[in-house]
Input
Amino acid sequence: MIQRFEEFTSNIAKAYKSIIKIKGHEMTEYNLKASNVTCLFYLGKHTEGLTATELCALCMEDKAAVSKSLAVLKAEGYVNQPDDGKKYKLKYVITPSGKKVYDEINIVIGKVVEMVGEGLTDEERNIFYKSLGIIVNNLDTLCNGLEDKK
Output
């Protein structure tokens, strides 16, 4: 049991570090950091725009991290906030130059996903994602139970 814990946690940590390194490497030509990729990705998927609160939920990041990413993306001209007369819950939308970066990110994501899944059959891949989903849901349930005990 302890060995399984050690293997799981170290593999998840290694995978996360590799993902951050790949994101960072691919974003240098756009003057962005790894932390900006997820916000840009979700804004590209939701062309109608998203509020900072919606981005926090989708990116699974806190408000400070999302605000920092949005400030960078806005400064680079990849997103903007159209003035629709509202003061609260303003939506951020991707700009044409942001859409270009988003499209290029998707190409890179496709290549990376294909490469890292090399050697797996479709059945093995499906089992892996199903198993990982179950583990993540169980971890969420455990964490929610910890919060209830407070």
User: Anything to note?
Assistant: Residues 122-148 form the longest helix (27 residues). Strands lie at 79-80, 93-94. The chain has a mean pLDDT of 90.
